[in-house]
Amino acid sequence: MERIVLIGAGRVASQLGPALRNRGVSIAQVISRSLPEALARACDAQALAIDQLHDLDLHADLYLLAVSDSAIGTVSQHLAARLPGDACIAHSSGATPMEELSDHFDHRGVFYPLQTFSDGRTIDFTEIPFCIEATTTEFEQDLMAFAKKLSARVHRIDSKERGVLHVAGVFANNFSNHLYTMAQAILDQHQLSFDLLRPLILETAAKVQDQPPRDAQTGPARRGDQETIKRHLAFLRKHHPDLVSLYQQLSNAIEQSFGEEE
Questions:
Q1: Would you state the pLDDT for residue 122?
Q2: 3-state SS, residue 205
Q3: pTM, whole model, 2 decimals?
Q4: Which residues contact 220 (CB under 8 A, 6 or more apart)?
């Protein structure tokens, strides 16, 4: 797969386009409903920007959908009206089953980089796991070879397994990041800098790179320190009452988890 059409101009597309171009892949077109967004992504990927499917290149090796999950089915149906049934199409979503792609296409697949993407940050794809699924063995092999242009960590993962990964990813990434947001709100209200927590956050993430998260667990709930928990709850009731229930739920979950082994 040396020539692709990238459909979408969001965070995933903004990273995939330049990364693939840097690995020698020709990005023929970047398509978005917003021409300015398509132009921005196309510039990064040295591609042609379009905002109308009637200008679609009909001879690409792969049509890669990096659109919102809710748009995958609709966009693939629009593509089905323009492309032959033997065209190769894949989406990059973690949560969306492969079956959302139009069955007009014989070669349907998933090309999912398991990572968080944010504006203003450049991602190194070399260590990112890619989850690959396809309707045919040949297309699956092609997608895996294509993913290996970016990363050495390429896995065959079906839609059910990918759904499990996505739920786990929400806990590991989205929920933990929201907890950072809550921590910053606490500190801001009391004129303390979030920078004080950054080394703690980095060490927490570093520990689970070489040991199970359960083994890395520390804190008052882990050690059954009820006096500290009571002081924390008293502080929260006074200053941050909206966080009391969450603190209690998380502490109880940790206590129950480790209580079971004793």
A1: 86
A2: helix
A3: 0.90
A4: 226, 228, 229, 232, 251
